[in-house]
Amino acid sequence: MTMAIWLTENSKIIVQGITGSEGMKHSRRMLASGAAVVGGVNARKAGQTVDFDGKALTVYGTVAEAMAETGADVSVVFVPPKFTKDAVVEAIDAGIPLCVVITEGIPVHDTAYFWAYAESKGNKTRIIGPNCPGIASPGASNAGIIPADITTPGRIGLVSKSGTLTYQMMYELRDFGFSTCVGIGGDPIIGTTHIDALRAFQDDPDTDAIVMIGEIGGDAEERAAAFIEQNVTKPVVGYVAGFTAPEGKTMGHAGAIVSGSAGTAQAKKEALEKVGVRVGKTPSETARLMRDIMKNL
Q1: Alpha-carbon distance 16 to 292, whole Å?
Q2: pTM across the whole model
Q3: What number is the average pLDDT over the span 275-283?
């Protein structure tokens, strides 16, 4: 029984940039977690193999070649920022269904380009990220850098802008477990949004409730609140990082820029609560709110 959105136990993963230090390290971790990593891509090292604790993976010259040889349907991108645009465009051209972009520090213009390019090709490739921890379906598969051993399979869906808060929420609710955890990244332009994940969790028969983690800046959480009001019947709890942030100061993630009251943690909390989302003041309080919901389902 596959309990997940977008990433399942049948997903076959290739790693763009598998021969770099980050690509090597996290490919080893994904394999150790049981994910089906089936190959890598690096045009300069095509034909070589990389050994991971006795498992040899072939390095292919292109995403298209890797897909043809392995049947891969997921790519995880660990390519340096200046080469990421070309890597994602190559994945889109190959028609891979899911492309998870871990790299941070990508120029916003480049992200805008490959996001628009995916759209021009009919949105056949779902992009998660960039500057994100990836996506994990506990017990089934893991694509990215989310630790595989901090939670269990279960029936909560999680979508988060923050990597570290993703891990904290997974750990705090490990006794209930998760269907899928999606780290969407905190850049101003991202592929998959809160709304995309909310829609998928709403449609997923194996997800009973949803945790949504946002942060100050932008209006993604306000848009998500409007979507929840119209389209989501499952219980949602929320957390907005940045309640203590000084107004007018750019914080952490590139997307967290506060202007006026729009974009403040308080404004986002009010927008979410207005549509019935219970919002915690801290990550731990948010986990407690979800715990209450799960106990009563």
Answers
A1: 41
A2: 0.94
A3: 96
